[in-house]
Amino acid sequence: MKSKLTPSMKNKITKGWNTHFPGMGIYKPMWLMNICGPLAVGILLQDKYDKTVYTPLLHIHNLCLDFSAVSLGVSIETENIPVSDDEEVYTGCISKLKKETYIPLEGTIDLNGLLMSMKAYFSKAWYKSELLSYMIYLAAWSGAGSVFEDIYSYVTEKIEDCNEIMQLRNRKEKWLSSIPHDLSCTDTLRKKVKEQEDKLKLADLPHREMIF
User: Fold this and answer.
1) Model pLDDT, residue 86
2) Do the Cβ atoms of 180 and 137 come closer than 8 Å?
3) Per-residue pLDDT tens for 53-69?
4) How confident is the model at residue 90 (pLDDT cuts 50, 70, 90)?
5) Three-class SS state of 209
6) CA-based torsion, 171, 175, 178, 183: positive or negative
7) At a CB cut-off of 8 Å and minimum separation 6, what does 140 contact?
8) Fewer CB within a 10 Å sphere, N or C end of the chain?
């Protein structure tokens, strides 16, 4: 008989995954997360179907915007994993996540390196406009003029490649009007990040440094 996800099994699996990502904290059962700059970086172990399998989902959440819950932005989903507390069942998936991710899951992050990685990931991203939004908010949050100028130029060029935006009438103009256009919002964004950490109960999670 296949094992099913029970509260005790969820806790075992969560702790097992956490041993492979010690720089992340347990946000909720089956959900690991840490905070780096304006990003919440998470791995959600989504239960599926009849609760005999779960699917790891790597994601980031933009703390610069007001949300009522942690979103699953720019996600990378792996294959279904049978429910088991045997580490050999999911270590292959962990290796795949670490290899395919566009963002380091532990340690200090270099903003310029992260933005370069995001640019490289753009062609693979499912919702490309979402990735561009994260990039421009990262640049605006940093307050670094040269970084913002480069990313603003990149974003306004690449929006043309976002089918989910371009195929809708006036969507491009609305989207562009909603993003930061200069660094006058930097202090406001940094304040919003702190407010969102408290609102979403993220303050006690491990925090990492983002350098630029």
Assistant:
1) 79
2) yes
3) 999 999 999 999 999 99
4) confident
5) coil
6) negative
7) 64, 148, 180, 183, 185, 186, 189
8) N
Tokens of 159: 């929006």
CA separation, residue 5 to residues 92, 94, 120, 191 (Å): 20, 19, 36, 39
CB 100 within 8 Å of CB 76: yes
Comparing CA positions, the residue from 93, 63, 95, 67 lying closest to residue 78 is 93
Burial class (CB in 10 A: 0-12, 13-18, 19+), 34: buried
Q: Which residues of 113-137 are buried (b: 16+ CB within 10 A; e: fewer)?
A: ebbebbbebbeebeebbbbbbbbbb
Question: What is residue 185's predicted lDDT score, i.e. its pLDDT?
Answer: 98
- Residue that has been written with the tokens 């200069």 in this structure: 182
Confirm if 168 and 162 have CB atoms less than 8 A apart.
no
